Amino acid sequence: MIKTQLDHLFERLDIPADAVLPYGREIAKINPAKFADRPSKGRVVLVTAMTPTPAGEGKTTTSIGLVDGLCKRGVKAVGALREPSLGPLFGLKGGAIGGGEAKVIPSDQINMHFTGDIHAVTSAHNLLSALLDNHLYAGNDPQVDLDTVTWGRVLDMNDRALRKVEVGSATKKGPIRRDRFDITAASEIMAVLCMSKDTADLKERIGRIVVGLSPDGKTVTAKDLGADGAMAAVLKDAMLPNLVRTLEGNPVFVHGGPFANIAQGTSSVSQTNLCRKVADVVITEAGFAFDLGGYKFVDLKCRNAGFRPAAVVLVVTVRALRYHGGADHTAGPNVDAVAKGLENVQAHLEAMKRLGLPPVLVSINRFPDDSPEELSLVKQFVQKCGANPVEGAYFAKGGDGALELADALMHHLELNDEDSPDLKIPYELSDTPAQKVEKIAQTVLGAEGVTLTDKAQADHALIEKMGLAGLPVCLAKTHLSISDDKKVQGKPGPFTLKVTGFRPSAGAGFVVALCGPVLTMPGLPKHPAAAGVDIRRLDDGSYDIVGLR
Prior knowledge:
Layout: H1 7-12, E1 20-23, E2 27-30, E3 43-49, H2 59-72, E4 77-81, H3 86-90, E5 98-99, E6 102-105, H4 107-111, H5 117-138, E7 153-155, E8 165-167, E9 177-179, E10 181-183, H6 188-195, H7 199-208, E11 210-213, E12 219-221, H8 228-234, E13 242-246, E14 251-254, H9 269-278, E15 281-285, H10 290-305, E16 311-316, H11 318-324, H12 335-355, E17 360-365, H13 372-384, E18 388-392, H14 394-397, H15 403-415, H16 433-445, E19 449-452, H17 454-465, E20 473-476, E21 496-505, E22 510-515, E23 534-537, E24 543-546
Parallel strand pairs: 3-15, 3-16, 4-14, 4-15, 7-10, 16-17, 17-18, 19-21, 20-22
Antiparallel strand pairs: 1-2, 2-13, 5-6, 6-13, 8-9, 11-12, 13-14, 21-22, 23-24
Helix pairs in contact: 2-15, 5-6, 5-8, 7-8, 11-12, 12-13
């Protein structure tokens, strides 16, 4: 076997040699099947956040710093994170490997192509797209009503020009129809990969994917097109979780990458299940704020995987508090804006309390321009809300900057040996999709109710006709507000959530409810980050990458 930088981690986590598939010297895929007889003892800690600024608030940096801090305290801890997407990397937000002294390496490889998992998802998705259009072209059985086709195409890039396209015009026979591209992170295949417990489960879920309806109203699936086997073959290696390390040499699994404002926003079930078998504490993050990834982690991932979070860490930054208080978050200290912005934190803490989650650790992710007055105000407010505030300097100090948070977390885990015993999902599976959305909106978002557009009502009837009404619901909405309006900052006043449509995600095991204007294919900003990325020739003749954020 290739001598790797991860050998000490294989020994620390008791990973047998036959479970390791090396990808060079710094990355390895691990086969979960080799751990089938090992008990799941690791306790899962969810890292979520307040509503972010467009740049994000450092959940990944916090998660990695916390792993390093726990390991410094002698805890057998691992991280369980998502894979970066090329779309945000070359767009506005940049990469997703942490930052400063709290990041995973090899950073450039992880940010760019990593082990090819996202490319495999793209290929598997578009394989089904090609088979579907060939099926339509050939007129094969089962027949598919063109007006009911729900399956589009994907690309791992922000490209607004592809949101609406026309396909089929290359041949006289056609058929010509309207289609769409989503970003790969929004693909149902990505959601399927991350909800699947193993490769057999993956193939079964792929087979259940609905591509449209027959003329007599019956669902047509990927299995009906004979696509499930080939798609599973494309994804075979992508199902294996990836192991890398932090700058301090501690283990982090990075696997799967569904967006939280569109899909479930959490890393794979197979990865987290594996982590629970090799460590005592598993630190995982969920995309964007608690109203999106955090809640979906509890509802969709935990429900499917059969575990509950042992603790919740809510990441807060002073700059985000300024932003939600109506001020320029980059303009320096503003106590009044921070005081107003704290209403956003309060809204998330209240939602967690209504769900019965355990008391929250609030991680104040420090930035250099945070003033003592602002930090003091945050701590006092958080304590009044019944949560435990802890300052962290993860970016600047890595594990040393996370020791206080690590100690607070272990104290909580020692006092509470049962994981979220009072957790209650706000809806029943027997509820209609509309009822589920309303109960989520009221409990998690604090909305007064929901309204369905005409299209949403038509989609709702179609979902019921497909026999999918009994599935959980995944909200797709803006990540910049708790409401469905990205301009509404802080804690929204009384509002009604607007549902604009429903999409089946039968393979993933849920129905997506589109709320407000939702873009499943983002666009690039006026000045994309890609303009600052380049390659640089080194003295030995090799090249490295420069300019990645």
